[in-house]
């Protein structure tokens, strides 16, 4: 809310309407309205352009106020810590969503199989029914695996290096839960690496 109010104040000081600001940034005025009402934050890809248009720094934007030079480093540290905290919370929510997607995908897979096994039907109908559950399950597990890759980090047991592996590395790695047997990009050794939220 504080950041939203700050954006609105800076926009008005520049005598810009929400529509004019949106046009300069190549976005919709609804997006600007959401920022100013505290319902969303500007995307990182346009944050620098927004700050340039409003004559503020990114640190000012993330603080929701113009920072005096004496407090600049302290505020910058606080903002970085806040961004890291928000990323950790977002990663936790994503990892919970991963489990939800995986469970729903299994339900979607097994329901048609049970129906096909219990009800009398032609063999081709049973095959179509099974595939109708298999395809969404494969898609669901693909999404769950993508979440597994991007949310949080993997920590090398050998050197302690934390990193985000490639989708291919996560997909091909043997695993037990969220622990995967992968090659560390730092020490180049294969170890069982645990999923961690903080770097």
Give your account of this protein's structure.
With about 200 residues, the chain is α+β, with helices and mostly antiparallel strands. The chain folds into three domains: about 1-65, lambda repressor-like DNA-binding domains (434 Repressor (Amino-terminal Domain), Orthogonal Bundle); about 80-150; about 155-195, no CATH class. The protein has eight helices and five strands. It has helices at about 1-15, 20-25, 30-35, 45-55, 60-65, 70-120, 125-150, 165-170; strands at about 155, 160-165, 175, 180-185, 190-195. The protein has a five-stranded antiparallel β-sheet, with no helix packed on it. Helix 2 packs across helix 3 and helix 6 (about 70-120) runs antiparallel to helix 7. It is flat, with a radius of gyration of 24 Å. The model has no long low-confidence stretch (mean pLDDT about 90).
Could you provide a short overview of the structure?
This protein has 199 residues and is α+β, with helices and mostly antiparallel strands. The protein is built from 8 helices and 5 strands.
Number of helices: 8
Mean pLDDT: 88
Number of domains: 3
Helix fraction by DSSP (H/I, runs of at least 4): 55-70%
Structural class by secondary-structure content = alpha+beta
Q: List unreliable stretches of 5+ residues.
A: none
Radius of gyration: 24 Å
Molecular shape: flat
Biggest beta sheet summary: 5 strands, antiparallel
The ordered string of helix (H) and strand (E) elements is HHHHHHHEEHEEE
């Amino acid at each position: 809310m504080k950041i939203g109010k700050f954006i609105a104040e800076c926009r008005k000081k520049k005598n810009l309407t929400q529509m004019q600001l949106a046009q300069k940034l190549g976005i919709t005025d609804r997006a600007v309205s959401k920022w100013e009402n505290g319902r969303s934050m500007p995307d990182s890809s346009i944050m620098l352009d927004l700050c340039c248009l409003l004559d503020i720094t990114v640190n000012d934007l993330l603080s929701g106020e113009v920072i005096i030079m004496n407090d600049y480093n302290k505020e910058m540290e606080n903002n970085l810590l806040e961004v890291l905290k928000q990323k950790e919370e977002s990663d936790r929510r994503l990892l919970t969503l991963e489990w939800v997607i995986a469970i729903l995908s299994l339900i979607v897979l097994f329901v048609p199989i049970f129906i096909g096994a219990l009800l009398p039907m032609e063999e081709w109908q049973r095959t179509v029914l099974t595939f109708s559950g298999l395809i969404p399950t494969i898609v669901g597990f693909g999404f769950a695996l993508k979440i597994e890759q991007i949310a949080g980090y993997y920590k090398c047991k050998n050197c302690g290096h934390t990193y985000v592996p490639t989708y291919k590395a996560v997909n091909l790695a043997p695993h037990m839960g969220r622990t995967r047997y992968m090659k560390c990009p730092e020490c180049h050794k294969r170890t069982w690496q645990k999923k961690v939220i903080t770097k």
